[in-house]
Design brief:
The structure is a homodimer.
Chain A lengths: L2 H10 L6 H11 L4 E3 H11 L5 H13 L4 E3 L7 E3 L5 E6 L4 E6 L4 E3 L8 E14 L3
Parallel strand pairs in A: 4-7
Antiparallel strand pairs in A: 1-3, 2-3, 4-5
Helix pairs in contact in A: 1-2, 2-3, 3-4
Chain A binds a DNA duplex through helix 4.
Keywords (chains A, B): Cytoplasm, DNA-binding, Iron, Metal-binding, Repressor, Transcription, Transcription regulation, Zinc
InterPro entries (chains A, B): FUR (IPR002481), WH-like_DNA-bd_sf (IPR036388), WH_DNA-bd_sf (IPR036390)
Subunit structure (chains A, B): Homodimer.
Chain lengths: ~140, ~140
DNA sequence: TTCTCTGCAAAAGCTTTGCAACATC
DNA sequence: GATGTTGCAAAGCTTTTGCAGAGAA
């Protein structure tokens, strides 16, 4: 993604543009990806070496609030950021950390319980955990 | 759960019996519960104050391997241990940490993708994330 | 000037590890 | 005595926070 495209995307989202944010957008949103905060940090460092880890972490939280990315909780070790914010599910291989999207057309959750009064649905996560076949 | 019941349970699972393990079984498996490692630690401390945090953490990992408990990854802050190891799903309120079981009879996942060759299904997690109604 | 953003370093929180002491068989 | 278990403290990791300086409006 070009710098001007990333800049435009930030403006549309109502986020003040800075060089770091542009680079974080480019790292996260150029292609569909699943990246940890530290992976984003490493990528951004390649273009802007004087970027701090704290800025990357804070910016990803900001992007999440603005719905530019989604946080995935699939691994106890680290949070993963997903560039795809539309409803979909995941297939996860803990052995190699590989995360694959499963579209919401393909897979459906039926029989959703009615929520107790006062509660509001936020989202439904489905994680299909797999491992390399042993036997 | 009585000490002798917990002891029997450990024997059946093929786990050498120790006082700490008996107390961890009693804390985790007397009733259906969802507890963090530290919550288990706090409970065990009440009966056996000279128990160390490391022992609780290690023992819970051991119990997971032996399928006495299940690890739930619902919150990036901490791991939660579930006393219910049979297939079921969860409703989670991040605001207060409350976790509720949803039975597999009630809720079903349909359209499971066929796994790439060499991969084996381990489990399917469904987490219904809710929050207190704002509007 | 005023407000926001950034970098650095330190802190925080959960979990694991190293090691010596202790139990158990 | 060999093996496995425990406690303690320290280390490890990811993530957050405090604060001063830099930048933008």
């Amino acid at each position: 993604m070009s710098i001007s495209q990333a800049t435009e995307l930030l403006r549309t989202a109502g986020i003040p543009v800075t060089q770091q944010r542009v680079e974080i957008v480019r790292a996260m949103l150029s292609f569909p990806t699943h990246l940890s905060a530290d992976q984003v940090f490493a990528r951004v460092r390649q273009s802007v070496p004087e970027t701090s880890r704290a800025t990357v972490y804070n910016t990803l939280k900001l992007f999440r609030e603005k719905k530019l990315v989604r946080e995935l909780i699939v691994d106890p070790e680290r949070l993963v950021y997903d560039s795809n914010t539309s409803p979909h599910y995941h297939l996860y291989n803990a052995e190699n950390g590989q995360l694959t999207d499963v579209s919401a057309d393909e897979l459906q959750v039926i029989g959703m319980p009615s929520l107790p009064p006062g509660l509001q649905l936020e989202e439904v996560d489905v994680i299909i955990r797999v491992r390399t076949r042993s036997g």
